[in-house]
What does this fold into?
Amino acid sequence: MKAAYFKEHGGSDKMIYGDYRDPVAGAGEVVVRVRACALNGVDMLLLDGRFPPPEGLPHVNGCEVAGTIETLDRGLGTLMPGQRVIVFPGFSCGVCEFCVRGERTLCLRYGYLGAHKDLWVTGHSFTAFYAVLPVPHRAAAFAGPDLVHGYYEDDARVVLEPVRALLAEHGIQAQAVHKVGHPAEEIASYAESGEFDLLIMGSHGVGALKNLVLGSVATKVLATCAVPVLLVR
Ligand SMILES: [Zn+2]
It folds into this structure.
């Protein structure tokens, strides 16, 4: 999309009009195609740095907008694409004494989109996924369901916990999910079963031929999965 934004603080000469990352509607959210935008005093404070955007730079100014709904999270009641809307940019915590009394604009943690929270970057949710290879049938029958189940849980925890910890270190909260089965099939079917916008996976496993060919799991997922895939070398 196109946007007017700034990468450094200063006067109007710092404003850039150009390509900007497309917003994505997260859970319970809509993307609005902006048709009109007011200039609010806070936009000036954000631009010249008296009120640095809490989420850092670059920043797209403008919190009072009207437009039409472009895309929306599934299950948002009566809202429909193309519908004309005015954005009420304020958000409140819902639990402080003022919110509880219904006086949400007096909220102790009151803020608004475009100022306290970047209007254009919606909160994404992340899932770390791991497919556990199944224990062969005869071994599973011998060990019994409890032992096998415990093995799957342990195996997944060993892989997923460090991933989740690493993401948390970088400020990304991710839920951890594992399924038992063939990795390519499980990854593809889980990606399609959830409402995922993007599947990110490594291109190679840890096999001896890892630098020669695209990993077989990645190849199969690419061939079968309907969700866009980002391969990381
Ligand atoms: Zn509140």
